[in-house]
Amino acid sequence: MDKKRISQEEFDKAVEQHNKYVEDAEQGEKAAFKDVFFEKIDMSDKQLNGASFENCYFKECDLKDAGLCFADIKGCLFDRCNANQLVAEEATIKDTTFEKCDMTKSFFTHSCFDDVRFIECDIMDISFQYALGEVEINPERKKPRCKLVGSDGNIFALLGVASSALKKNGQREDAENMRERVYASQSYYEALGIITEYVDDESMSEDYDESDDISM
User: Fold this and answer.
1) Regarding the domain with residue range 4-137, which homologous superfamily does it belong to in the CATH classification?
2) Taking burial as the number of CB atoms within 10 A of a residue's CB, which of 68, 110, 119, 185 is the most buried?
C-alpha cells in the first residue's frame, strides 16, 4: 500500500497545530494530508476547517460532528465511516467517494462538488443547500463479470483481473477504490469479499452443474 498510515496521536497533534494556525498563522501549521491512510481514527468533534486532504483513504473513521468547512478534499475514499452531523460547508470536494457511510444530518451548504459519489450511504436529512457541481446519490453499481479462480497466495492476481474488468467497463474510479480497500484488508477472504462487491465471479456459474439438481 502506497499510503502512509497515521496514528490517533499523530492525527490529534496535527489537529492541535491546525487550530493554532487558524488562530494565528505564525504559531501553528495548516493541516495538509496527502497520500494518508486513516483507519478507525476518532475525528469526532474535531475542527479541521480549511484543511486539505488529497488522495487519502478513510476506513471506518468516526467523523461525527466534525468540522470540515472550507476544506479541500480531492481524490479521497471514505469507507464505512460515521459522518453523522458532519459539517462541511463551503468545502471543495472533487473525485471523491463516500461508500457505506452514515451521512445523516450532514451539511454541505454552499459546497462545490466535482465527480462526487455517495454509494450505499444513509443520507437522511443531508443538506446540499446552495451546493454546486456533480453529485451522484446511491447510483446502481455496475458489476462486470470475470473469472476469479485463485487461492490464499494470489489475491493480488485476482485483484488485477477484477481491476482490468472494471477499467474495461469504464469504472476506473471503482477499480481504484477496490484496490484501496483490498490493500487495507486483513485476510484473503476479507479481500475476496471486497472484490466480489465490485465484480461478478463468472467461474461460480461455470462450476454449477445442472445434473446436480434434484428432480421429483
Assistant:
1) E3 ubiquitin-protein ligase SopA (2.160.20.80)
2) 68
